[in-house]
Structure formats: structure tokens, C-alpha cells
Design brief:
mainly alpha; binds iron/sulfur cluster; 3-stranded mixed sheet
């Protein structure tokens, strides 16, 4: 069986508050997903020949296809086609954990919903918002992202390590990440302004690295700190106008992309609520442009009202995104990483607007549920991310000057 180890990590306060709510959860860890099983766990399960799980392991634990199997995805659990969950789920609880204990879980299930990132010997842990309880804790509490330190139990296989990036030292990488968090937490700027500044910063960093001047990263950070402090940003961004038509038309097709039937009835129902709000015909998943734009604009107005009491909602969503991955160092360039972040933000905003446009009584909990739905359905789907990025580029929105119209609302 895989071994656990203890690590000293930084983590946002909300992670320390997390406890799985088990059978009371409105979703399940494995809802709509096929769970991959690592090699060591797969072989251990195959050795179980007696007891309540033996028959299940024989029938529902499958070897991955292909000759070249990776150790982390050696096998998988069969899904219950009707329920859209793992065959080992029993009345909302995992029967493997019940009978064999947490240490016997495969790496995928042991780690979920936690995500631990290591960069130059420093560890930071967050939770994926595809878990409903994690989404509530991260998005709603004002102090959710105060950072603390703690010893945690984990496994090596549950830690993602960020490698050194284009010759930058880990110190420089850490400084860039710290500054990026700081931009997203700059309360005197609206969310769209924070994203605009982050875009300018990532654009400048991309040019700096392209010119082989990574050693100047510290100077770039200080330059941007000065610009923000002097209030020049608000002045410079003021003339930018919102372009609702572009926002709706760019990101709504991604909503349609998600209309592929899921096996989870809960996911399908949230998808339908979003589609209805945005004016989609739920049979064909078509919508005419004018209807879409007016539904989107109405939804955004309502969204502002619902979020009046929790102004940190989008900030927390974005910061969680930054903490989980080695932003802005997980793509070819910092700018590419930034565009991926902005794409996810744009889609989430369209989905939230759809939810609000379709239900005038929409509450904060409906918005949390929508973010959780997005995270479960799309965030872990690399194909979806690639399609979104391609759309953004094909529409000419991938340059920083054109992005402002997409960001402002
Ligand atoms: S999704 Fe989250 S709260 Fe629900 S069962 Fe899994 S870990 Fe627990």
C-alpha cells in the first residue's frame, strides 16, 4: 500500500476548516468522473480475495487499456451508468474507505479534494472547488484566504512539483506568484481592473523572459507596485468600456459545449438552469445573438445584487485558481497562463449571469453551486481548456489591448 508522509505546508484558512460531509454531500467525489487507480493500489486490491469487497474488486476494478500504462493510472473503477458514480459508492459513502480505512484508498481518492503544490522546497495546499463543501468554505468566508502553516499527512503521489521556469530562480518565481496574489487582493481596484493589471504584468514578464532578462523580474515587480500605489492604474483604465456582446458571444458557446449529457442528473439540471437563463433552446442548444446578449446583460445586473454582501466572491475564486497551479508558470509563457485564467473567469461569469437571469430569486448558494458545477465538469478537462484557448485566440482576444472589453463589466 502507498505510504503517507508528513509535510509542513502553507495553506489558506478555509483548507484547515474542511471536513468531508460524507453522506450529507449533495454531490460525491466521484460524480460524473471515472476514477483512475495507481499501480500499487491496483495490485493490492487484486490480492483481496475474501471479505465484503472481494467480489467488487474482481468485477469492477479494470486494468487500463494499452500496453504502456502509467503507474498513476494503472487501472480504473467501473462506473454505475445510472447513478454516474463509482461502483464502490454505497449510500453516499465510499465502501472501500468504510471497510479498509483511508490508507487503503488509491492516490486519486486519498488526495481528493486536496491539491498540494511544491515549488523549490516550499509547499502550498488548496482544495478543488469541484467539492461542494470546499467551494462553500473558499468562496463565502471573508477570511478564507488568510495563509497559515500546518503539518499535513499526504503522499508523494499527491504532490505536484513545479519545475524551474525559463531559467528563473525559485526565489524569483515565488516573488512573481506572491505579487500576482497581491494584485488579485488589491481591494481599491475592481475585479476587472485587477485582472487587467495582472494581464499587463504577465505580458511584460513574458517579454522580459523572451529577451533572456529573467534577472530583472524583481525590478518589474517593483515597477508595477509603484504604478498601483500611485493610483495610475485606475486613471489609465477608466476610458475602457465594457463589451457585453463580445463577452456573451465569446464565452456562451462554451456553455453549449457543456450541454453534452452527463450521467449525473444534478449536473444536467444545473446546466439546464444556466442554459435557460441565457435564452438557449434546450433541445437544440441554439440561441440567437440578441437574445443571448440581453439575457447576459440582465443576468450581470442581477449578479451584482446577489453578490452585494460578498464582494470577495470572484476574488476568492481567482485566488484559488492561482494557488492550485503554479501560475503563471504552467504554460509556455506567463501570458498564455494568464489567458487561460481569464478564459475560465469569462466562462464562469457567463454561467453565473445565466443562473441569475433565469431565476430572479437566485441566491448566493446557487452561485456557489454553479462554480462547483463548472469545476467538476470543466476545470479538470484538458480538452475543454484547449478549446477555450483556441476560441479566444481565433476571435483576436488574446492581445492585452483587446482583452479589456472582455474583462470590464
Ligand atoms: S465531494 Fe467533498 S464533501 Fe462531497 S463526499 Fe467528496 S470530499 Fe466529501
Amino acid at each position: 500500500m502507498p505510504r503517507t508522509l508528513t509535510r509542513r505546508v502553507s495553506l489558506p484558512l478555509y483548507v484547515t476548516r474542511f471536513t468531508c460531509i460524507g453522506a450529507a454531500c449533495e454531490d460525491t467525489c466521484c460524480g460524473g468522473w471515472t476514477v483512475e487507480v495507481d499501480k500499487a493500489t491496483f495490485q493490492a486490491y487484486r490480492k483481496v480475495t475474501t471479505g465484503p469487497l472481494a467480489e467488487g474488486f474482481r468485477r469492477h476494478l479494470q486494468l487500463a487499456k494499452g500496453l504502456k500504462k502509467a503507474d498513476h493510472s494503472w487501472g480504473r473503477f467501473e462506473q454505475d451508468v445510472d447513478a454516474g458514480t463509482c461502483k464502490f459508492l454505497d449510500e453516499g459513502m465510499c465502501s472501500i474507505q468504510n471497510h479498509m480505512g483511508e490508507d487503503a484508498l488509491c492516490d486519486t481518492c486519498y488526495g481528493y479534494p486536496r491539491s498540494t503544490l511544491e515549488m523549490g522546497g516550499e509547499f502550498i495546499q488548496s482544495l478543488t472547488l469541484s467539492c461542494p463543501e470546499a467551494a462553500r468554505l473558499a468562496l463565502l468566508a471573508e477570511d478564507a484566504f488568510e495563509l497559515v502553516e500546518a503539518d499535513i499527512q499526504t503522499r508523494n503521489a499527491c504532490i505536484a512539483s513545479a519545475s524551474s521556469y525559463q531559467g528563473l530562480s525559485y526565489q524569483h518565481m515565488g516573488d512573481v506568484r506572491f505579487f500576482s496574489f497581491g494584485i488579485l487582493r488589491t481591494k481599491q481596484l475592481a475585479i476587472w481592473q485587477r485582472l487587467a493589471v495582472l494581464g499587463l504584468f504577465c505580458d511584460s514578464l513574458t517579454r522580459l523572459l523572451g529577451a533572456g532578462e529573467g534577472a530583472q523580474t524583481g525590478a518589474l515587480v517593483r515597477q508595477f507596485e509603484g504604478v498601483i500605489e500611485r493610483g495610475k492604474v485606475i486613471e489609465a483604465l477608466e476610458p475602457m468600456t465594457a463589451n457585453y456582446a463580445s463577452q456573451a458571444c465569446l464565452f456562451a458557446p462554451m456553455v453549449r459545449m457543456g450541454s453534452r449529457q452527463s450521467r449525473s442528473e444534478r449536473q444536467n439540471s444545473i446546466q439546464r438552469a444556466i442554459g435557460t437563463g441565457l435564452g438557449f433552446d434546450l433541445q437544440t442548444w441554439d440561441v440567437d445573438e440578441q437574445t443571448l446578449i440581453s439575457c447576459y446583460a440582465r443576468g450581470l445586473d442581477r449578479l451584482k445584487e446577489v453578490l452585494a454582501d460578498i464582494p470577495h466572491f470572484f476574488e476568492h475564486y481567482l485566488i484559488n485558481d492561482l494557488v492550485r497551479d503554479p501560475f503563471p508558470f504552467s504554460s509556455n509563457t506567463p501570458m498564455e497562463d494568464y489567458l487561460q485564467l481569464v478564459s475560465r473567469y469569462g466562462i464562469v461569469r457567463v454561467m453565473l449571469a445565466g443562473r441569475c437571469a433565469g431565476d430572479e430569486n437566485a441566491k448566493v448558494n446557487d452561485l456557489v453551486e454553479t462554480i462547483q458545477f463548472f469545476s467538476r465538469r470543466f476545470q479538470h478537462d484538458p480538452q475543454f481548456a484547449a478549446q477555450v484557448y483556441a476560441s479566444l485566440q481565433s476571435l483576436g482576444a488574446a492581445s492585452i489591448d483587446k482583452l479589456y472589453g472582455f474583462l470590464r463589466n
